[in-house]
Amino acid sequence: MMAQIVMNVIMGSVILLMLGAGLNIELRQVIDIAKRFRLVLLGVLANFLAVPLLIVLCLMLVPLSPDIKIGIMLMAAAPIAPMAPAPFVEKAKGDVVYSVGLMTIVASLSIVLTPLILSLSIPESAGGVTLNPIHIVKTLLMVQLIPISVGIAIRQASRKWADRLVKIVPRIGQIGLLIGVGLLLAKQASQIISIGLLGYLIMVLLTVVSLFVGDLMLIGESAEKRRALAVSTAIRNVPLAFLIATENFPDTVVAPVVLVFSVLTMVLSVVYGKLRVPSES
């Protein structure tokens, strides 16, 4: 009973976060970015090919438990968090418009590509749990694509109402997600410790690699765009990965791995921003 309540809180919170992301998006910005084929293609390749492939290769070489690998792969397959453009890309003085446009395009592509990546790469859980790709598609539609689309539609219809709602909706989602995460952590605190030093080191390494992949993909473009893609590529879609983890792998170390990985990506992205900006000023 309690587990189902927590699950509903998390799902509702993720929907509100995605709706809030949509409320911030101007359709014309997405269209303008979509017209820049090279920038979109390189961003998509960084997030759906380069990073997942490097993570799969890394996980093949290190002796981590299947559930820890699943948690890492969920993050690999869920690119660009809705909160990546603001504040993280903004703090790194990256191109926020490019980041927002790419995030919206990637959210649409995730409906097909995220389940595909997971079905090709994810190992069987230690408890014998397997992933249902069709269920993942339904989850992505319900908690990501539809809420973002509704948010964009509201902004198109009434910028005034969108500006009002965006002050409230994401905040409720953040509070709900924190409550859900807190309840799960209280139950699974010991599993965070069980991840082990090697697991933490691998997550740090993969975050650094993701930052470099995003940065190097846009060599020849402006420093602002390179920083935007670097941060967007590193900060994966934590709410979505966490929702998939709690829905499909309850009472395992998978969800704690997602949470730890998410914290590391955010911290290291801030460090990257601080290191990159002075070097170009």
Spans of at least 5 consecutive residues with low confidence: none
Helix run count: 13
Rounded average pLDDT:
86
Beta content comes to under 5%
Please state the overall shape, judged from the principal axes of the Cα atoms. globular
Major sheet characteristics? none
Q: What is the helix/strand order? A: HHHHHHHHHHHHH
How many β-strands, per DSSP? 0
Binned, the helix content reads over 70%
Given helix and strand content, the structural type is mainly alpha
What does this 3D model show about the protein?
The chain is an all-alpha fold. It has a single domain, classed as Na+/H+ antiporter like fold. The protein has helices at 2-23, 27-34, 37-61, 66-77, 84-91, 96-121, 133-157, 159-165, 169-194, 196-217, 223-234, 238-248, 254-279. Helix 4 crosses helix 13. The N and C termini lie far apart (55 Å). The model has no long low-confidence stretch (mean pLDDT 86).
Helices and strands, with pairings:
Blueprint: H1 2-23, H2 27-34, H3 37-61, H4 66-77, H5 84-91, H6 96-121, H7 133-157, H8 159-165, H9 169-194, H10 196-217, H11 223-234, H12 238-248, H13 254-279
Helix pairs in contact: 1-7, 1-9, 1-12, 2-6, 3-4, 3-6, 3-10, 4-12, 4-13, 5-6, 5-11, 6-7, 6-11, 7-8, 9-13, 10-11, 10-13, 11-13, 12-13
Task: Describe what is shown at a glance.
This protein is mainly α. The protein is built from 13 helices and no strands.
Characteristics:
globular; single chain; Na+/H+ antiporter like fold; mainly alpha; 281 residues
